[in-house]
Write a structure and sequence with these properties.
Helices cover about 30% and strands about 15% of the residues. By secondary structure, the chain is α/β, with parallel strands linked by helices. It folds into two domains: about 280 residues, FAD/NAD(P)-binding domain, CATH 3.50.50; about 140 residues, Elongation Factor Tu (Ef-tu), domain 3 (Beta Barrel), CATH 2.40.30. The strands form four sheets. It has a six-stranded antiparallel β-sheet. The chain has a five-stranded parallel β-sheet with strand order 6-2-1-7-16, with helices on one face. A three-stranded antiparallel β-sheet has the order 3-5-4. α1 links the parallel β1 and β2. The chain is globular, with a radius of gyration of 22 Å.
Length: about 425
């Protein structure tokens, strides 16, 4: 049976892999080689833009649990992440080029996947399809999806952190340490600031020039990707309780007033991402601001931070908890355009949408994941009819639903053990 997947990002690549694995003839449509958005830098599938971090790998963290659920379900994205992981403390960070190249190669060599390098412009609801067009979706395709939703898309602005050349970091000031790690040097490069140095930095940020946003009057940000200059404008101490928090980063027994952390961005250890410094300052202003940090006074920026609009549908009004359009049951949606937020969440939605489409085409959905799993909780959240206007959200235990009456300090452990048991049973049926 033939199915279609629109978009070869994290969600689309995962969906195509899962459907092909189950014997479907998958037509994967990807436009990057013929029409590439400026945010992308390569033609590889599942390209990571904002960061190379897939966040915490702690099983008792919500996104850590989600990743383990995906591993149980044979996730292509998790195979790539585990194969190309690089040191990042308790987080799962990857060599972004190796990660994307691995996924691209696996998709290209799969005999059940036919790749069409072209721009999709219309949605045909007579063909079983997963729409994984991504949050940068625009043009005719965006208009076609909007008609399915019977209303305009919602949207918010997202921003990307700069990446710097390791050789330009001044280690007379910088030091290695992971937060709260007392025994080892750690995987992060830390750039400390004194109170006076932070004040100089803060004033530079407040007075820096922003790139103008012309296409809307009201800028809306996802809180997890708030530009650091917008955080600074919220108050002098906002950054000190956010990305520049010094707690757990003491060096030689001294806690700095503020710290900028850098995380390795490639396996050969030459590039570092400025953690939490997503921005839409002008390129010149980015350099001026970073050079006020002593360890970065000679910094060379190899990729500047950029701003882009992320688009998503108001999912509760149009899809169910299977990522399936209510009025168009042949159509499913996945990725950030569905209203989930984050790399891992996007891939997970592609995986779950594919499994649901597979069941639907094989005489209806018989097995499903409920909100007592992280994957099911995400699907339940974005389809919750009591939500009138969806706000994108990362995986978190606040949306998790499992009745537990034991000791409070055992709650997350109980959540995790129960969820993994449910997912293992589900995996045996799909």
């Amino acid at each position: 049976m033939k199915v279609k997947v629109i978009g070869a990002g994290l969600a689309g690549s995962e969906a195509a892999y899962q459907l092909a694995k189950r014997g479907f003839e998958v037509e994967l449509i990807e436009q990057k080689s013929v029409k590439r958005h400026p945010a992308f830098k390569t033609d590889d599938f599942a390209e990571l833009i904002c960061s190379n971090s897939l966040r915490s790998d702690d099983l008792y963290n919500a996104v850590g649990l989600l990743k383990q659920e995906m591993r149980i379900l044979d996730s292509l994205v998790m195979k790539a992440a585990d194969k190309y992981r690089i040191p990042a403390g308790k987080s799962l960070a990857v060599d972004r080029r190796g990660f994307s190249e691995y996924i691209t190669d696996e998709i290209r060599k799969n005999p059940n996947i036919k790749i069409l390098y072209e721009e999709a412009t219309q949605i045909d609801d007579s063909v079983p399809t997963i729409i994984a067009a991504g949050p940068l979706c625009e043009g005719e395709l965006a208009e076609s999806i909007s008609r399915l939703c019977d209303k305009d898309f919602l949207h918010f602005y997202d921003a990307v952190s700069p990446i710097v050349d390791k050789d330009s970091i001044d280690f007379d000031y910088a030091y290695y340490k992971s937060r709260y790690d007392e025994e080892n040097e750690g995987d992060y490069i830390n750039c400390p600031l004194s109170k006076e140095e932070f004040e100089t930095f803060y004033n530079a940020v407040i007075n820096a020039r922003k790139i103008a946003v012309h296409d809307i009057d009201d800028e809306k940000y996802f809180e997890g990707c708030m530009p650091f200059e917008e955080m600074a404008r919220r108050g002098y101490k906002t950054l000190l309780f956010g990305p520049m928090k010094p707690v757990g980063l003491e060096h030689d027994g001294i806690r700095p007033y503020a710290v900028v952390q850098l995380r390795k961005d490639n396996a050969i250890d030459t590039l570092y991402n400025v953690v939490g410094f997503q921005t839409h300052l002008t390129f010149g202003s980015q350099e001026e601001v970073l050079k006020t940090i002593p360890a970065l006074r000679n910094v060379r920026i190899v990729r500047y931070g950029v701003m882009h609009r992320n688009t998503y549908i108001n999912s509760p009004s149009v899809i169910n908890d299977k990522y399936q359009f209510i009025e168009h049951p042949n159509l499913f949606v996945a990725g950030q355009i569905s209203g989930v937020e984050g790399y891992v969440e996007s891939a997970a939605s592609g995986l779950y949408a594919a499994l649901n489409l597979s069941q639907y085409l094989n005489s209806g959905i018989r097995f499903e994941l409920g909100p007592d799993t992280m994957m099911g909780a995400m699907a339940a959240y974005i389809s919750d009819k009591s939500i009138s206007k969806l706000q994108p959200m990362n995986a978190n235990f606040g949306i998790f639903r499992y009745e537990y009456s034991g000791p409070k300090n055992e709650k997350k452990k109980a959540y995790v053990e129960h969820a993994l048991e449910v997912v293992r049973e589900y995996a045996g049926h799909v």
